[in-house]
């Protein structure tokens, strides 16, 4: 049963429907082994944004405060999108990568394992 | 057997109630913490009106317990003469 | 002279003879909420309140409790009791309490007033009515107690406005909204049983004892005064569950599902209490882990052993819950510390003595996972770069807490769960929150997630600063940011005459 309700066929209003974000989609980014950031972060982004722009504009905003951020070799970075491994090319857009509203990227940076190698 | 427990505010009235509980339930454990006192027993614990009246030296209604009660654990049964806490398992 | 009635006779007269039969009206229309949850009640007269409290005794003892309580508030205020707290950092726990917990007392009042009308049995209605009045008393006494602190400390002035809007306060608010939007029997299992019987003990007993240990006479007094009612509420919660399980065997799986849901919801909600215990009480009584072992594992374990004869088992994911006691408080305080710019109270790096206490209390986890975070924070602070994280966090669709919880078999990795419902993707902090959503998606698609509301432009803006100051009504630079250098800290030093 989709809900235990006193009225039949009760349907809830989807408060975070894509249409409510003025053409953007919500995309989440998490950086594994870097718990200096307590949780992944949320950004409203145009689906046509290229991955190159994600790297150059969004990543510094999301994770630039980490002491290891400037050491990241983006060519070696490993990505997951909604739990599937992907190999994004810089010119691909979020939409072309298959990222849709409320998709979640996880970043792993081989060799960089956080403050003092402690996953922080 | 699981432990039942009762915790009371640490004050003058509770002192007599705890004393009465100790008399009627010789195996209880008394734990003092800031501002409170916790009484634990294996399986069962009884608070008897008569004993509390003796330790306090005055009439005492079993429902007055509510004034100093903080928490308890166990199935409760209360009548005019006593409050019982008990686990069935 | 007429014989004085004993407690049992008085209770019987109140709860049986005052009810009536529906001779010319449809009983189902009088109690429209009683059947849709699938709970079967065959005989309301089997309902028994073990305290057998009648209204006359109720008013008598409540009046006496209030007199004692307000006499202490008077003494506290007349003697500038706020100057006796152990450390001004402590008052920040009260800010969390007043904005996060006291409004829940009001929601509990509303919830019990509602179910106190909707149950067909008069014994249950009387007990819920008393509890509704108790809950109203709790919110009032808490506001009165805190009003003294509001004269001397920042961050207490807009508590009810903040409760409705601030990002982290959507966690407690939505918890109670969820319970109140459910049917009356689920509400009783959610609040009467799961919350009152096991979980509120953790807030009102060890935390209040901690308040006493930190010199806060007002809070320990309202806490224990409230808790004296809670002992009755706990007993009601236990009676409700036994009553439902004895009424019909078909009730057992429904009740079990609610227990699974509400113990999980409750443990998530208590994350903030874990943090208050371990990080916000400068004088320590016991660690969150120790409190959890006494009040959840031991007391809850005894309870579930007792309920096993009805076919009820421990709540689902109890194994995860047991492991999480080692981590919750540390993950939560780090989240608030790093979001200290967006919190309505002050945060800080624990002192070296406090860090050592945490290592001692959490020998298996603190040094390995959490101490390095504070070393990093100290390094940054020493460079003049006190760390406030940028951006907005991803939230769990069910509990609305940022996705800060980690995998219990790999505590260094964030726990990611998701589910697609009708083409829309939803994210969860845990299997527990995932399962709750999947069971009733049409309820939780409606979640008012603060981060998404901000990004939709529904909370003012455009920047986070405007959201905080205008929409949340935080005094920026006063209510929020680090304890170090705060107006609270400066005033405290003036009062105490220290540099």
Summary keywords:
heterotrimer, B: 89 residues, alpha+beta, Phenol Hydroxylase P2 Protein, four-stranded antiparallel beta sheet, three-stranded antiparallel beta sheet, 3 helices, 28% helix, globular, C: 499 residues, mainly alpha, Ribonucleotide Reductase, subunit A, two-stranded antiparallel sheet, two-stranded antiparallel ribbon, 5 strands
Number of beta strands of chain C: 5
Whole-Å distance between the termini of chain B?
7 Å
As a percent range, the share of helical residues of chain C equals 55-70%
> Quick one: biggest sheet of chain C?
2 strands, antiparallel
Order of helices and strands of chain B: EHEEEHHEEE
Spans of at least 5 consecutive residues with low confidence of chain C: none
> How are the strands of the largest sheet of chain C arranged?
2-3
Class by helix and strand content of chain C?
mainly alpha
Question: How is the CATH topology of chain B named?
Answer: Phenol Hydroxylase P2 Protein
Radius of gyration of chain B: 12 Å
Q: In what order do the strands lie side by side in the largest sheet of chain B?
A: 2-3-1-5
CATH architecture of chain B, please?
Alpha-Beta Complex
Short description:
The complex is a heterotrimer of chains A (120), B (89) and C (499). Chain A is an alpha+beta fold and 120 residues long.
If you had to describe this structure to a student in words, what would you say it looks like?
The complex is a heterotrimer of chains A (120), B (89) and C (499). Chain A is an alpha+beta fold and 120 residues long. Chain A contains two helices and five strands, in the order ββαββαβ. In chain A, strands 2-1-5-3-4 form a five-stranded mixed beta sheet, covered by helices on one side. In chain A, a hairpin with a 2-residue loop joins strand 3 and strand 4. Chain A is globular, with a radius of gyration of 17 Å. The model of chain A has no long low-confidence stretch (mean pLDDT 96). Chain B is built from three helices and seven strands, in the order E-H-E-E-E-H-H-E-E-E. In chain B, a hairpin with a 3-residue loop joins strand 6 and strand 7 (82-86). In chain B, helix 1 packs across helix 2 (49-56). Chain C has 499 residues and is mainly alpha-helical. Chain C has a domain at 7-19 and 26-345: Ribonucleotide Reductase, subunit A. Helices cover 61% and strands 4% of the residues of chain C. Classes of the chains: A alpha+beta (120), B alpha+beta (89), C mainly alpha (499). At the A-C interface, strand 1, strand 2 and strand 5 of A face helix 15, helix 17, strand 1, strand 3 and strand 5 of C. Strand 2 of chain A pairs antiparallel with strand 1 of chain C.
């Amino acid at each position: 049963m989709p809900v235990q309700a006193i009225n039949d066929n009760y349907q809830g209003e989807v408060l975070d429907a894509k249409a409510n974000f003025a053409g953007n989609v919500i995309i989440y980014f998490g950086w594994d082994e870097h718990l200096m950031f307590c949780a992944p972060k949320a950004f409203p982004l145009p689906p046509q944004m290229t991955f190159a722009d994600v790297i150059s504009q969004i990543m510094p905003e999301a994770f630039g405060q980490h002491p290891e951020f400037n050491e990241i070799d983006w060519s070696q970075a490993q990505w997951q999108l909604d739990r599937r491994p992907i190999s994004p090319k810089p010119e691909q857009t979020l939409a072309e990568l298959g990222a849709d509203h409320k998709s979640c990227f996880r970043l792993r940076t081989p060799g960089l394992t956080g403050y003092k190698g402690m996953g922080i | 057997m699981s432990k039942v427990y009762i915790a009371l505010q640490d004050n003058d009235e509770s002192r007599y109630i705890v004393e009465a509980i100790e008399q009627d339930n010789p195996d209880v454990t008394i734990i003092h913490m800031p501002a409170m006192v916790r009484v634990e027993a294996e399986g069962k614990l009884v608070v008897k009106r008569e004993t509390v009246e003796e330790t306090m030296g005055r009439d005492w209604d079993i429902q007055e317990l509510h004034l100093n009660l903080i928490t308890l654990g166990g199935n409760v049964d209360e009548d005019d003469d006593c409050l019982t806490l008990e686990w069935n398992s | 002279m007429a014989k004085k009635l004993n407690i049992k006779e008085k209770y019987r007269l109140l709860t049986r003879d005052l009810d009536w039969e529906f001779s010319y009206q449809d009983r189902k229309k009088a109690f429209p909420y009683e059947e849709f949850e699938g709970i079967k009640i065959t005989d309301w007269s089997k309902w028994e309140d073990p305290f057998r409290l009648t209204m006359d005794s109720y008013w008598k003892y409540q009046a006496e409790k209030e007199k004692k309580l307000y006499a202490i508030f008077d003494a506290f205020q007349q003697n500038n009791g706020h100057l006796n707290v152990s450390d001004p950092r402590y008052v920040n726990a009260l800010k969390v309490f007043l904005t996060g917990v006291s409004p829940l007392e009001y929601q509990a009042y509303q919830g019990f007033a509602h179910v106190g009308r909707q149950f067909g049995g008069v014994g249950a209605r009387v007990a819920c009515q008393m509890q509704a009045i108790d809950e109203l008393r709790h919110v009032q006494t808490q506001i009165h107690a805190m009003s003294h602190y509001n004269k001397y400390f920042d961050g207490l002035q807009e508590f009810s406005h903040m409760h409705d809007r601030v990002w982290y306060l959507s966690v407690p608010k939505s918890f109670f909204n969820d319970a109140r939007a459910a049917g009356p029997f689920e509400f009783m299992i959610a609040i009467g049983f799961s919350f009152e019987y096991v979980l509120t003990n953790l807030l009102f007993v060890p935390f209040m004892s901690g308040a006493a240990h930190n010199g806060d006479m007002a809070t320990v007094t309202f806490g224990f005064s409230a808790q004296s009612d809670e002992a009755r509420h706990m007993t009601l919660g236990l009676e409700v569950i036994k009553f439902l399980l004895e009424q019909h065997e078909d009730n057992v799986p429904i009740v079990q599902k609610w227990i699974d849901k509400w113990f999980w919801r409750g443990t998530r909600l208590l994350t903030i209490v874990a943090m208050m215990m371990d990080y916000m009480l400068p004088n320590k009584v016991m660690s969150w882990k120790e409190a959890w072992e006494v009040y959840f594992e031991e007391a809850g374990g005894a309870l579930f052993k007792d309920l096993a004869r009805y076919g009820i088992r421990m709540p689902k994911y109890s194994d995860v819950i047991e492991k999480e006691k080692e981590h919750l408080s540390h993950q939560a305080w780090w989240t608030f510390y790093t979001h200290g710019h967006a919190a309505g109270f002050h945060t800080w790096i624990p002192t070296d003595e406090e860090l050592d206490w945490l290592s001692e209390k959490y020998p298996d986890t603190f040094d390995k996972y959490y101490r390095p975070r504070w070393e990093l924070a100290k390094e940054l602070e020493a460079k003049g770069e006190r760390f406030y994280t940028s951006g907005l966090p991803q939230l769990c669709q069910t509990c609305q807490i940022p996705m800060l919880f980690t995998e219990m078999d790999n505590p260094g990795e964030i726990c990611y769960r998701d589910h697609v419902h009708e083409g829309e993707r939803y994210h969860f902090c845990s299997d527990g929150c995932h399962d709750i959503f999947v069971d009733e998606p049409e309820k939780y698609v409606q979640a008012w997630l603060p981060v998404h509301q901000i990004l939709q432009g529904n909370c003012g803006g455009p920047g986070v600063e405007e959201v905080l100051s205008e929409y949340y009504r935080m005094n920026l630079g006063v209510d929020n940011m680090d304890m170090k250098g705060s107006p609270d800290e400066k005033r405290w030093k003036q009062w105490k005459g220290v540099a």
